[in-house]
Structures are given as C-alpha cells and as structure tokens.
Design goal:
This protein has eleven helices and six strands. The longest helix is centred in the last third of the chain and has 14 residues. It is an alpha+beta fold. 39% of the residues are buried. A six-stranded antiparallel sheet has the order 2-3-1-4-6-5. It has one domain.
C-alpha cells in the first residue's frame, strides 16, 4: 500500500474523515505501543463501529480485543467470542430487530454467516494517512456521492459491487470483505447510528487492501463522467410562465409597451 494512493483517495473525494485500515492479529503483542486501547486508556468499552469512528475522526490507531468490546454482536462477527452463538440465545433478535422470533433468528443466522474465518485475538484500526501497521482491509466513510464514486471506480473494470442490508451488525461487512476478498457497500445499521455515532448522511465501503490500486486508477478513469464535487449541467433554466423573470418576458413586455405608445 502506498501512502500517495491513500492521499489521492482522500483528497480527490474531499473526505471529511480519514480512511482507515483494519488488521487482524492473533498476537496481542502486535498492537503498536502508541495505539489507544479503550479499556486500558479510557476505562471504557466501545462498540467496534465506535472504535472505527473514533479512529477516522481523531486519527488514533486503536487496538481492540475482547476486553475492549461493548457490543457482543460485533465481537461475535469478528470471531473474538469463544462462543459466538451467544448472540442467538441472548434474546436480541426479537422484538428489537424483527416482527417475530422466527424472522429474527433468520436475520441473526445471516449475521453469523459472516463471522471472520480465522482465529484472532485483536483488531487494529489505523488511519491510512499515517498507518502504524500494514492493513488487510480498508474502510472509507463519506456521503452517498463520495462512496458511490469509489464503487464506480471498481465497476470501471467491468466488475459489480454487492450490498446486502441485514439491518443489524453493519460491521459484519468487514469480515465479509475479508472472507470473500471483495468490495462491499454498506448502509449503517441502527446500532452503528446510535452506539457508533455514524452521522445521518454517511455510508461506507469496505474492500481488501489489494484492491486499492484498482480503486485509485478507477477514480482517475471516471473523473470526466463522475467528478467530485459533481458539476451541474450547463443549461437554460425553466420557470412557470406566470413568474415573468426571463429575457423573453422582458422582450414581450417591451413590445407591449411599444404598441401601447404607438
């Protein structure tokens, strides 16, 4: 990964927050000394979406293990729980997320299908403009038009980008991207909005670091058809006829005046 590519990504889209990298590790000693730890340094436990948001706003590298985790659904999908099936037995699915217990279980089974397919002890979240570790996954937040441009950068190569909204555990898109090696577009879930602090107008995209070169070259390739900020068309406006603001209205008015005076 080249820092110049990250800067081009951030600057060309005028992103308000840092793109962040995610690294999974089975060795707690791999967490950099300078990394913030939610429980050690703040005496708090954070949801994983909250930790990502803090990293992208403050520029902190965050080391995150089970003792730092507030949300056990997030901990489960990142394979930090010894028994991830806890989330199926905790009574979370109904009535909070679904119309019935049966429908809720279907949703949570879908969440568990995304569990990270490797054993880890910690997640390291780092701002990509100054990374303290080599990331495996990239997460970028922005407005729909900003994130849409990143998605289009991949479709520039004839590929499509999938998105599946479960309505819970939007963070599970990160292990999904790792497991399947593909880009995923994400609409934040209720928990991410409430616990994580993701803003109303934000969406995000996640992809393996190996796709960064394609994203950057794709952004260059689509610049003419998909600039940011989006340029308005050059056209003549149209207003209701009774709102006589136009040049034509003025000319008609002059003609009427002239006829009255002759």
């Amino acid at each position: 990964m080249r820092i110049e590519d990250v800067k081009l990504l951030k600057n060309s889209l005028a992103l308000h927050t840092y793109p962040v990298g995610i690294r999974f590790t089975d060795d707690l000693n791999e967490i950099p000394e300078k990394a913030r730890r939610p429980y050690r340094d703040f005496k708090q436990r954070w949801a994983i979406c909250q930790a990502i948001n803090i990293s992208r706003y403050y520029g902190f590298t965050v080391g995150y293990s089970l003792e730092d985790a507030y949300c056990m659904v997030g901990a489960a999908v990142f394979n930090l729980l010894e028994k991830p099936e806890y989330i199926m037995e905790a009574g979370l699915e109904y009535p909070f997320h679904s119309k019935s217990l049966e429908e809720g279980r279907r949703l949570f089974e879908r969440v568990l299908s995304r569990v990270l397919k490797r054993s880890i002890k910690a997640i390291i979240i780092t701002p990509l403009t100054n990374p303290l570790v080599e990331p495996q996954i990239i997460v970028v937040y922005g407005s729909p038009i900003q994130i849409g441009k990143i998605v289009k950068a991949i479709t520039y190569y004839g590929e499509t980008v999938k998105s599946e909204f479960i309505g819970v555990s939007s963070c599970s898109a990160i292990p999904l991207a790792y497991n399947e090696g593909r880009m995923t577009f994400v609409i934040p879930c209720a928990g991410e909005r409430i616990l994580g602090g993701t803003e109303e107008g934000e969406v995000w995209v996640v992809f393996p670091v190996e796709l960064l070169d394609k994203v950057v070259e794709g952004l260059k390739g689509i610049e003419w058809i998909y600039p940011y900020p989006m340029r308005p068309l050059i056209y003549e406006p149209t207003v209701p006829k009774k709102y006589r603001i136009t040049y034509r209205d003025y000319q008609e008015w002059l003609k009427e005046k002239h006829e009255l005076n002759t």
